């Protein structure tokens, strides 16, 4: 942990403990959803729409049915009404979108499941799927995306706000910036595909599925299938990456459950990588109009950020992160607006730093443009506008260490002495540039419960239906219990990702640790209380345990997170524990903050862009495990490189399809693109955010990198690129 | 994947017998490393009725031999073996580089040289049979790429019927080095220039090579020459590894002091077939290799280029790539022994 400035902590928390499930993962014995072996499994394969808008006219299933090994074919005609229409999460339900799985002949988007074949083998199912002949009626061309239809966007008034008088301040300002930015559609592409296995036993359904919210799947399925939720169990012991794609119930789960019930056998579906592009939500393309005005010494006098986001016709989904970009810097006159453009596309959703990535790209690039106009150092510009009070509602930050992050990262980077003029640094044939940007992520937490059992032999078992997505949840929860009860971490076992466990929040919004750690701490309090030890502080409980003569003590606790509604604990038991916090609190704002610095090189002839160095410093409250936090932050920053230079779901407008829906053509950074990436954890204590003092590090690493890279490219070449991804042709 | 007949003959003679005894008139499809073929079979793009696995029969043609005058590369040698071979790396750097900059280590361990030169285009519309219009996949059906996403498509050698790029890297090295290719088939063995192996799309983009039915690539024969040691492969792409070229140049130059005695140039990622830049070579011959000549040569190579809606930048990028490659070759330290 050579790049960690975080001081060695004294307790178990704060130590770079080794990953709890490292051995299982390295040796391949960790069973992911599709690894679970069930007797007599039948295999399913999806048929998806090749048109972007229209109707199904007919199916010819003759050849597919005749193929040896084919057991069943589900279409909207054969499935009956086994799956009910239920609302999406945006309408108070559970689904990632509002379409009913195989619900009708209507085609709402390319890639929509239109049939599912079930067969004895995967190969037979795939072959039969290829033999299904689908006839479509596609009379109207689909609207593929934003196109030039920004004018027809629909304003989402509740997401807009204003303070002061932007127009006057902007009109009368000394220095202004007025620019438009765009970001493309992107897909999470977790390594692990969207597998689902369903098995029915005595009227009870067990679902094996990688999930960021097992209870969402459980209660959503119960609603879709008209079942008592107590008859459904969802298991997600390990998740091979999720990044928002596995947050909410998708069409596939009910289809697999219904198929398994129809044929009386377990059914397994593993949609292909290409199908994964429309199985779940994604980051929709965005456009931004930013206007800034400042005094000659850099103080912001007016700030306006308007965003447009693509959504589906079925659902209005917008990330609307103007709520954050407008609150980062002191400024008296602010206007913010959010619009959506409805397209014939699948419903967008959450992708790591969903709104923060695109909105930060726009705002933090605009600030760099302002710094350049002012002939001011970009770090100095942030310093002049630093504030401990957000400017929209005048609420205090619970803690804000932004400038400490900037100073720490700038020193580590060697920022001092950077020439302010662009296109002045060279190394042989490479133009060199340095850029920086602010990283931010709202601090969230949601209601969660946990059960902790202490045995007389000193073993501790922790249970919560939180989720291990690769971020280190098992390890951190073991650390929390070990420190609270004063036992060695090796004596702690942890169970996660199973609806039979005490319910927890969705693993979204970087809120898992901040939500589940306090529940474990509260359960440990309850154990201490039983033993007559002072609560609220870690203590070695074993002497008292021995004295008590008890064999085991088991405590279950639930914790309501700050900012959640008083009656929201009921939601915890109905798969509706969503994170609260960030900018949506009546009394304060909560953010983790950071500063990203990058060096880019652009070849003077062939214009390839390289990123030899990225250094980020982050203040995110308490770091429970610097090893896993480091993985999150560095991984996030690498995502940031991808968001700036590589990731782009390319759309053919004729049928609103993705034409690069595979990992050869959908580029993400490979090792060769990632040179020196350093994450520095700046010490920060925040006792307000939650009892664990944790702000979350899952997403902040992504935020700001794209702007820092575009700013560095400007510094290297003098060319300002306002559209992502930035590629060779932009610099020619 | 459609059911198909699978044969694995032990010798090349058996391969020919297996073909003669074939139940249908449809020629067999050969399987080598499978990294192109199996991929396209899973996508439903290639639907062979009979697959003849050459991995046993071809094992005699997997060697790398250099006798000082010619380099012989067996068509069944793996990309990785050839890329790592010390003689190839030292005496034919353009070959080693074109292979080691291609694909990923896993693919290079599987893929053979013969399969490599016959890899199919990455045109998204070719690879997805739900697009009806693709003259290469379904002759006469049209071309979905012309009005579609065609950033990766070709600017040289295209036709109104097909604008797909030939994406392979190794073939550019073979073009530049004047390689020939040894073919074996039912009618015996023949040797043709490598440049005669691929066919321009014209009106028949589905016919990609001049191979006779049932013919197998056995060997690549590359003459050594003063240009071979001063050779390199420059591959420009959006990420630093594991991506096809947006533009590439294979150059081999023999220098006489500052003056070019001989130059051989091929361009990748830009053309419908492996592409020799004869115009550029003519300009360079007997000229001083400096920025001005390199630029003139590069401009000449793209005089006939035709851009598509999303790839006009590739003409300028191709020029710049070639200039950079030539100047890099001129400044190479070359061992003379
Ligand atoms: C993700 C990905 C990335 C890639 N990136 C690159 C890249 O950057 N650069 C690059 O150059 N390539 C790249 N490739 C292509 C790869 O190099 C080729 O797939 C590979 O070289 C093909 O060799 P193979 O032995 O696997 O061929 P196969 O798939 O076995 O065969 C390919 C074709 O050649 C025929 N064939 C094979 N051998 C013979 C023979 N001896 N005689 C006659 N016919 C024969 C087969 O019938 C088939 O039609 C990439 C491939 C993938 C999947
Ligand atoms: S460019 Fe060629 S391969 Fe691509 S769609 Fe057109 S005809 Fe088919």
TrEMBL record, chain B:
Stretches assigned to the FAD-binding PCMH-type domain: 1-227
A GO molecular-function annotation: FAD binding
UniProt keyword list: FAD, Flavoprotein
Gene3D superfamilies: 3.30.465.10, CO dehydrogenase flavoprotein, C-terminal domain (3.30.390.50), Uridine Diphospho-n-acetylenolpyruvylglucosamine Reductase, domain 2 (3.30.43.10)
Listed Pfam families: CO_deh_flav_C, FAD_binding_5
Name of the protein this chain belongs to: Xanthine dehydrogenase family protein subunit M
SMART domains listed in its UniProt record: CO_deh_flav_C (SM01092)
Keyword Flavoprotein: yes
